[in-house]
Specification:
single chain, 2 domains, 276 residues, L-fuculose-1-phosphate Aldolase, nine-stranded mixed β-sheet, 38% helix, binds zinc ion, binds 1,3-dihydroxyacetonephosphate
Length: 276
């Protein structure tokens, strides 16, 4: 069967990265059944032939109006689809959508009429903001990382400052590679517009990763690999925290001075970079 990826090596590289990350999510135990979703803004790879592809679905409403997304194209994991299947067959377990001129609806254009993830309002609201704020971020990842979700069951850690401080203090790399961690969204119904709005507020506050209470995380990044890396380093810290607790003690954590030194020496960003 003909695929939109045929003869488009740059687009294929992006979709291959999505498939690679989907495999990691499954291997890590973060993607039970259909858990988690991925969307990637692929508009930069869209040529005239793609622009003229007919819709292979009805027009579908997003549920929100997103002015910066007019004419954009996204690869989206399909709702109900498994990451472990997507890892092998990305175009059977996801699809490419075109946002229509009203900025409130979309159609599927390739390869198969796979209905996008139920978390589409969240993902697209983030993409709309990321474009509007001038970043070159193209990827949004939602997953269910075990240790971070476990921490979200504790009222102590439903405080962005506190959970970020504890996670950064577990190992220097987390501070270095997740310098824009970790916002919190109190529990909301999965796939709701309320959840999308609350997540967007946190991303606007310059958090690259947001913890959804008793559910999972959303991370954004320049590409899907970098969005995954942020969750991976944060969850590594959560795992170290839990290992120490399992050994019967509260981990000491790096001192505030040691963390400040890393921030200064590595000139770690405090806000998301903007395209030049
Ligand atoms: P989808 O299968 O619709 O992507 O949903 C998975 C999920 O994790 C919802 O929060
Ligand atoms: Zn979920």
């Amino acid at each position: 069967m003909k695929s939109i990826l045929d003869g488009r090596p740059a687009l294929k590289i992006e979709i291959d990265k999505v498939a690679e990350v989907a495999g990691y999510l499954w291997q890590k135990g973060w993607a039970e059944r259909n858990g988690g979703n991925i969307t990637v803004n692929i508009s930069e790879y869209v040529d005239d032939e793609i622009k003229s592809l007919p819709a292979i679905s009805e027009v579908k409403q997003i549920g929100v109006t997103l002015p910066n997304l007019r004419g954009c194209y996204f690869y989206c994991k399909g709702t109900g689809k498994r990451m472990r299947d997507l890892a092998r067959w990305p175009m059977e377990n996801g699809s490419v959508i075109r946002i229509l001129d009203d900025c409130a609806s979309y159609v599927i254009i390739a390869d198969n009429p796979v209905l996008p993830t139920s978390e589409l309002p969240s993902h697209l609201s983030l993409h709309d903001y990321l474009i509007g704020s001038g970043t070159d971020y193209k990827a949004s990842l939602h997953t269910h990382p075990i240790e971070l979700v476990a921490m979200s069951h504790s009222p102590r850690f439903l405080n962005a400052k506190e959970i970020t401080r504890v996670l950064w203090s577990m190992i220097p790399e987390t501070l270095a590679f997740a310098p824009l961690a970790l916002g919190i969204v109190p529990y909301e119904m999965p796939s709701s517009v309320k959840l999308a709005d609350a997540t967007l507020e946190q991303v606007k506050n310059n958090y690259d990763c947001v913890l959804w209470e008793k559910h999972g995380v959303v991370a954004v990044g320049p590409d899907i690999m970098q969005a995954f890396d942020v969750v991976d380093v944060l969850n590594k810290s959560a795992n170290i925290y839990m290992c120490a607790k399992n050994m019967g003690f509260e981990p000491e954590g790096m001192t505030d001075e040691a963390m400040k030194e890393i921030q200064d020496v590595f000139c770690l960003p405090k806000v998301r970079p903007i395209k030049k």
